[in-house]
Amino acid sequence: MSLAFERVAAQPVPAHAQQYRVRMRDGIRLATDVYGAGPAPAPAVLVRLPYDKNSRYVFFEKAAERFTARGYVMVVQDVRGKFRSEGRTLGWTGEVDDGYDTIDWITHQPWSDGVVGMFGDSYYGFTQWSAVSSQHPALRAIVPRVTSTNVVPGVAAYGAVRRPTWLEGADYQAHHWVDNDSYEFEPDLTKRPLIAAYEEAFAAIGKRSAGFDLIVGGIELAAYNGPHPYDARAVPVLQCVGWFDNLGIAHMRDYTELAARPAWAAVQYLHADAIDHENYFLENAPVTPETDHMTDEAALERMLDAYTGPALDFFDVFLAGKAHPDTLPRVRWKLGHVGWRTATAWPPPEAIALDLHLCAPQNATGPLPGGALAELPPSAEESVSWRYDPDNLVPSAVTNTFMVLHDHPDERATADRDDVLVFTGPVRAEPLDLAGPVHAVLHAESTAPTFDLFVRLLDLAPDGTARLILRGCAQPDAPGAWQVELGHTGYRLRAGHRLVLLVTSSDFPNHVPNSGTTENPWLTAAPKAGLQTLRTGPAHPTRLRLTVLPAEKGQEPCP
Q1: Measured between alpha carbons, how far is 68 from 76 in angstroms, rounded to an integer?
Q2: Which residues face 202 on adjacent strands?
Q3: What is the pLDDT, as a whole number, of residue 153?
Q4: Cα(72)–Cα(74) distance, rounded to whole angstroms?
Q5: What is the pLDDT at residue 258?
Q6: What are the residues whose beta carbons fall under 8 Å from the beta carbon of 171, sequence distance 6 or more?
Q7: What pLDDT sits at residue 110?
Q8: 31, 21 in Cβ contact below 8 A?
Q9: Mean per-residue pLDDT pooled into runs of 10, the chain (559 residues)
Q10: Which of 265, 285, 395, 446 could link 405 by a cystine bridge, Cβ 3.0 to 4.6 Å?
Q11: Is 181 helix (H, G, I), strand (E, B) or coil?
């Protein structure tokens, strides 16, 4: 019996949109909706996406109302090879020329005043950066949300440290990048080798995902056939970041890279909210039926106000010229559990580094509270070992990290496992405000040639619930001091709460289990167990580095 699947095809074009077939330089035509075109020329806001321009999932039928009400023409396009657009289906490459050609088409329409901005999330943030690479002179401003210039789902490395293979990202390719449609199915992830779960799906569908095959083969295509966006002509950019976004580490890497480049720094702005990739809010987590914008129309209307508002204010300055740039805060960020703040830079100039040392590791394999997080380092060398068992993998907090705040689960059960190291800080007498980057430095080694380090930072509440603040991972291939980036955040650890750091060597099904050998983990039929060791002490300063807003504090010694 073959695997059951459902084909998801294009939804109808709404009556108030005019659909065009826009011809690219190679003759391929891309399906393009235009909202709000009138007799008077106006600035246009372009969105180029792969998820069906007319689906409720991307809600542009409703979002367009907000843009056209402010005097913009909204243009929404299915990218090459997706839904109503022609061409080969292969994502994360080839968008530079299509972006240029679409912008050029817009500027030749009677409703265009020759000024174009771009907007959107995730892949349709990547298409904005591709258009920046094209350097079309009509592109005047972009608003990339929860995205990155460099993230290709499933690719194992970005930055200086190799990462475990992101199964969730490869799974995305298998569902969304087979052909023009998308496919819903549930792969059997218990199969070994793991690739067999997707071979079963492709056999049932009768087609393969070229992007998935590239990931499994470790082949990375060039994202840009022009200059990298960092090296292209700078245009005003509003980086809309989610503190709980699963692409947040990569997105903030873009922000910090551009902040170091004078031409970009002069026109870069940051809007950072306590949201995840699917625009769920920390203040609503866990989500109820009344706050779920995926299913509730009133919740969707409320979400769209927050979704479009910052972009509209930004475009009023840089596209329409209705306001001066000085009216925009350089940085607007939400402090989780508190509210909105503004700053002249990120991190805020007053923020400072705070190191918490991992102490008493001999207790770390026990249930909460385990070992300790303390400001004073331990005075003696100590260590703890934990196992990686491919037959008993540590469960991911949620199976879909794109919407981690939808459930925002209690992770006590994971913290209490004996193959998870747990270190807990003292009960806070006063709030601690996190405002900037966070990373862990782990002095670790393994009996295996490569091993995975998954790190989660949790908020332990007085009622005993432990919920995610940040997470990160790395894949070392030798003993040493390994830095694991957890990303940036704005988050208040409230009085009476405690910080918890978890360290483990698997995270399933978010990541492909390590093979325990040098074999491709997708192809191994019998992954090998391994024993990891974490060292602490003066010669091995294993620690968690926070960026915090200053407050009166005393030092907590290691127990």
Answers
A1: 13
A2: none
A3: 59
A4: 6
A5: 98
A6: 187
A7: 98
A8: yes
A9: 93 96 98 97 98 97 97 98 98 94 98 98 97 98 96 54 92 97 97 97 97 92 93 98 97 97 98 98 97 97 97 98 97 98 98 98 96 97 98 97 98 97 98 98 97 98 98 97 98 98 98 96 96 98 98 54
A10: 285
A11: coil
Cα–Cα dist 449/157, whole Å: 17
Please tell me whether the overall predicted TM-score, pTM, comes out greater than 0.85 for this model: yes
Nearest to 234 by CA among 203, 206, 269, 209: 269
Query: Strand 466-474 relative to strand 453-460: parallel, antiparallel, unpaired?
Result: antiparallel
Q: Rounded CA gap, 364 and 148, in Å?
A: 35
CB 526 within 8 A of CB 513: no
Token pair for residue 80? 């090459």
Q: Where are the beta strands (DSSP E) in 234-307?
A: 237-242, 268-273
The total number of residues written for the chain in this structure? 559
Q: Are 471 and 456 in contact (CB under 8 A)?
A: yes
Other Cβ atoms less than 10 A from the Cβ of 108: the count is 8
**DSSP code, position 24:** P
Strands 432-446, 530-536: parallel, antiparallel or unpaired by DSSP?
Answer: antiparallel
Taking alpha carbons only, the member of 470, 456, 435, 453 closest to residue 530 is 453
Sequence-separated (6 or more) residues with CB below 8 Å from residue 108: none
> Are the CB atoms for 162 and 474 separated by under 8 Å?
yes
pLDDT for residue 234:
98
Matching residue, tokens 């449609």: 181
Identify residue 189 by its one-letter amino acid code: L
User: What is the per-residue pLDDT for 2?
Assistant: 85
- Cα separation, 61 vs 436, whole angstroms: 36
Tokens at 304, concatenated: 């769209």
C-alpha 158/C-alpha 146 separation (Å) is 16
Residue in this structure with the two tokens 């004078």, named with its chain if needed? 262
Q: What is the 3-state secondary structure (H, E, C) of 436-458?
A: EEEEEEEEEEECCCCCCEEEEEE
Query: How many H-runs (helices) and E-runs (strands) does the chain carry?
Result: 11, 23
Tokens of residue 170, six digits: 């490869």
Residue 547 · residue 353 · CB < 8 Å: yes
Instruction: State how far Cα 384 lies from the chain centre.
Output: 32
Non-local CB neighbours of 49 within 8 Å, separated by 6+ positions = 58, 76, 77, 78, 79, 120, 123, 124, 127
Phi/psi-derived region of residue 135, left when phi > 0, alpha when psi is between -120 and 50, beta in every other case: left
Dist CA 37 CA 18 (whole Å): 9
Query: In whole angstroms, what is the distance from residue 310 CA to residue 496 CA?
Result: 34
Q: Distance between CA 140 and CA 116 in Å, rounded?
A: 6
Q: Radius of gyration of the chain from Cα atoms?
A: 24
Identify whether the C-beta of residue 482 lies closer than 8 Å to the C-beta of residue 453.
yes
Between CA 415 and CA 367 the distance in angstroms is 7
Buried/exposed code over 145-181 (b: 16+ C-beta within 10 A; e: otherwise): bbbbbbbbbbbbeeeebbbbbbbbbbbbbbbbbbbbb
Distance, in Å, from the CA atom of 22 to the CA atom of 31, rounded to the nearest integer, reads: 6
